[in-house]
Amino acid sequence: MIAQPIAYAERNRDLYLTQLIDLLRIPSVSTQTDHDNDTQAAAAWVADSMVAAGLDNVQVIGTPRHPLVYADWLHAGLDAPTVLIYGHYDVQPAEPFALWDSPPFEPEVRDGYLYARGASDDKGQLFVHIKAVEAYLQTNGRLPVNVKFIIEGEEEMGGASLADFIPRHKDLLAADVALVSDTAMISPNQPAIVYGLRGLCYVLLDVTGPSRDLHSGSYGGGIDNPLNVLGHIISQLKDQDGRILIPGFYDNVRPLSEQERDLLGQLPLDEETWLKETGAPAIWGDPDHTLVERLGARPTLDLHGVIGGYTGPGAKTVLPSTVHAKLSMRLVPDQDPQEIANQFKAYVAEIAPRTVRVDVVAEHGGNPTIVDLDMPAIKAAVSAYEATFKQTPVFMREGGSIPVVNQFKQHLGLETVLMGFGLPDDKIHAPNERFYLENFYRGIQTSIHFFASYSEL
Amino acid sequence: MIAQPIAYAERNRDLYLTQLIDLLRIPSVSTQTDHDNDTQAAAAWVADSMVAAGLDNVQVIGTPRHPLVYADWLHAGLDAPTVLIYGHYDVQPAEPFALWDSPPFEPEVRDGYLYARGASDDKGQLFVHIKAVEAYLQTNGRLPVNVKFIIEGEEEMGGASLADFIPRHKDLLAADVALVSDTAMISPNQPAIVYGLRGLCYVLLDVTGPSRDLHSGSYGGGIDNPLNVLGHIISQLKDQDGRILIPGFYDNVRPLSEQERDLLGQLPLDEETWLKETGAPAIWGDPDHTLVERLGARPTLDLHGVIGGYTGPGAKTVLPSTVHAKLSMRLVPDQDPQEIANQFKAYVAEIAPRTVRVDVVAEHGGNPTIVDLDMPAIKAAVSAYEATFKQTPVFMREGGSIPVVNQFKQHLGLETVLMGFGLPDDKIHAPNERFYLENFYRGIQTSIHFFASYSEL
User: Fold this and answer.
1) Whether residue A373 sits in one domain with residue A327
2) Is A196 helix (H, G, I), strand (E, B) or coil?
3) Does position A425 have pLDDT exceeding 90, yes or no?
4) Which residue, A104, A370, B166, B388, could crosslink B446 as a Cys pair with Cβ 3.0–4.6 Å?
5) What ipTM, to 2 d.p.?
């Protein structure tokens, strides 16, 4: 029964690629309002592809920002489990455009990779499951499990609309497990199942001194400089080894067990290759933890952007009025984003001098997660990867955040299987994002196997 | 002999105002190439006014950018001293236009002030001396001293053409003292002579980590963040009280004598008014020095601009590749800009972690200056102010730099008398620039007195 969908998917490789390229042409950047027509177009495109796959009840659901897309197929029988599949059609901004080797929204295949913004994060990966479902429905006319899709368009801007939708539609979204492909494998032939995700606390920090830019010659030495103050604040947030200095920050960090340290120690991470891929001069971080632990199992604090004063060409000697900084803290169980935001605000208020005004706004948060490795859907995912890649997946923690995983847990009681098909060097969120095409096709096979295996467990 | 020029100037107040308004109508913005015709027009206008005043050898001298204007009158006799008068006819950009109460190039008199871009900086102040010379030549037919004028059109863009001209025309510009009116008094009735100017060491500082922006979730904790590193570097350049931490930085700072501290202590600076004008929450700086000392007689270090990472709207979680900072140090005698640049580079190289690459480029410098208060031209300036304002001028140090003062010293061996007629709230470089008209007229009188007094000392 699995042979037909596998063969169907195999036969249609070229068609699937053409279709994915179509979707990637839509610049559905959720954070930039001038792309609002594009997010609408991407939602409609996804809905159309679900209809074509044979799914039922396909709906584009309006929200205050970008639409959700829902679809289901619920004819596998009462005994069959239900899988809730999540993905997002919105993408990160593509700036700076000049650093792309081919334009971000004109997808191009080079050396087996498909280059485009959103190729890996997450259009390529969400499309995998639509095509797997299509392969079943267009051959066997049925799936071995019930499926529901919920696809959002605000993942890259915090996911507010879906966060609002989930608790108000528990029935519609009810399932036995959630399935998300928005993570990376270890290497092209080494799959990985992510069982831990970091949470997030995102903060905007503005420092304002004088009410206008002053001449630094006339006022320097008599008025504090917001950029200098920001430097002092930054230096007190995290020491140079990466230990975060906010009082109480580590209080709720669940210590790593010996067993988990062993598990993480077995991950085949070649530090030299990893470093080379980043282009940074050196690996860095808290010396009390291994690199793998630091990347997924420990909290961090990173500045994302700073702008202030004169940043044009040449020399201008202003004492700037104001400076804007964006930063976030990645959290691990059992840190709470709201509590961390409060600690951050209190600490900055304490260390900021009275010579400036400091404004802190906590933008959005996400709770950290850990998944139970013994549940049937995880076993099904292991066997699906093994069937396709001829390789047992490793278990790892991811440094990033997928807030929806938390919401599924909190409101629907669902555990999530994070079955990624990306690669660590996909350059998501950066210029030249790409998706390894062979694993796009193998992803579809893996999804086909997963539905079969899960129905049998 | 002085009564006639004084009376002449008094009689012609309205005419002088009409003429100055004419000059201010020309939008001679030197940094904006679409105003190149206007700088040409302003130079021609100044030259015409010199011819009308009765000056000899009036020349508009072409340069790669904006012309210089030269003129002289050298018939005072071999024993009479020669004064080299400097000014600039170019102005700052007037943007943002919307913040002007009357258009910047349509001069308007309101409440005794003349509002226009360049009114105080420096068209109004340079015109003072042309009119003083005219008053002598149109009445007595002669001046008590020899005078030379050198007027430039690039002051607001760095003054490259004049800097190039001076060392190649030492003979043409030879004089006994230089006279510059491009500074401010304390208040409408309290004149000031600036006897110290700070020098400058301008630095570009770039911090680069990974070769591209990375996802902070995937790499945070394993790769050092250039923005966090920049914060640590900034915090080690200057402590929170404003003391600069670069080793050796203060070694050549000439200590303030008790006499000079007394002199500066007498400056009538109302700290509350001063603070209010900046809009900052508090006065700030090295507690070992008074505000007046810190603003002119002590070195500073100020960041002027920082840009790096994601600075667009919304939240983006990049670990940025690179960050650019501009900063400068204001220097006092006897600090040397080149030596300070070297100290800065060595210190940053020492404190920067090996996890990033730090590039430091020293852009341009200027030496700090102190004028000898005992020289005859200073005494002449004091008595000229006293004769006009019935008030002894105070001596003050200026925080900014006037590079031409340095060039006169270095290439022509000249000390400069900085005899300003502006006011602290003239809003130079800002919207609603203005010049207090009463002091325009009193400036002409002061200049007339100065020439007379200087010839007698």
Assistant:
1) no
2) strand
3) no
4) B388
5) 0.81
